[in-house]
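Format notes (please read before filing issues)

Several people have asked whether sequences and structure tokens are stored in separate files. They are not. Every record keeps both together, in the order shown below: the sequence lines, then the token lines. Line labels are part of the format and must not be stripped during preprocessing.
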Amino acid sequence: MTAVREELPEGRYGRSVDERADRKLRILGAVLGVALLGMTGWFGYDYIASQKISGEVIKFDVTSDTEVQVHLEVRKDAGATGTCTLRSRAEDGSEVGRVDVAVDQRGDKRTDQVVKVRTTARATSAELVECAAR
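Then the structure lines:
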């Protein structure tokens, strides 16, 4: 014997409980998705807008066992001051030199300078740690 399932007439009794729950979940998902996109946009804008000083190591040259020359490019808002920190590492990864470079208030928005980093051993790399506004 086969069981016959009796179906209710379509549209006669309104939406089923499952359909109402699905609709509420879709609306909730859409609202949360829009809120997440808005927060991501806000945090991204705030991060970019708050950076008044940024820098980049263009190149470096190991000139001796105790010195590395670093070509540093700094971009900043007009009138901003701060410091950029450079460091050198040895072949084993240990830090052998560090220097803080002052970024002055000149009206230039972009400056290039060659910085000498004194080291305690022969360096194999030079990197920008951070640039921070004061």
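For reference, the curators noted about this record: The longest helix spans residues 17-50. The chain has two domains: 8-50, 53-133.
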